[in-house]
Amino acid sequence: MDELEFRRRAYSDPQSQDPEFLAAMAEEENRGAFVRELKQLDAKLARAMNVDVPETLAARLLLRQQLLAHRQSKRRTTWLMAMAASIAFVIGLGFSWLRLGPVDLGEHALAHVHHEPMALTMEQAVDLPTLNASLASISGLKGAHFNALPGKVVFKAFCDFRGVQSIHLVLEGENGKTTLFIVPLEERMQLSERFADSTLKGLGFRTRDAFLMLVGDEQQSLNALQQTIRQDFI
Q: Which domains does the chain have, with CATH numbers?
């Protein structure tokens, strides 16, 4: 066995009892010394690897894992709370804008009629005391009321104009049914004298304490009804 092969086998397994390996080691004294050094190195490595595991190691590792999980959960919870607070803030700003931003009453009135078609099918027969009682319950109208019914009132309900409590009426006349909205005055409210869309038209006017909007279809004449309301609503 040549020197290269001997050293390769010695490095691979210095504890080998193979007869050929032992015979080659006996041929030269320095080979025996080389193998003994390798055996001593193996013994040192074995002692280094043979370290007793502390009895509390498992508990410490488990505790560390739990602490890491708690920190991650806490960071995630903090992030979620911050995100929720941000969303709530944005929503709050949105509601504030809706409540305090400018309001196009004509546009809102048209949308209201389209979104509540059932109001035009009702037959409530509202009398004057009932109508005025509803008006009196709205503080923003400051006691405004009708001296006489503006016509046959077949529907009455409270409605909301961007956070402002208002009155929604349906009047029945010779030319069909007309919607009347009564909204307390606010500076942010904007009302055009005339407004319309593809199927409805409207007439807007104001009194001392309220905005009023009449909405009907294209065939209806709203001017005469406007004059009646101006005379009877104070």
A: 3-49 (no CATH), 103-232 (3.40.1000)
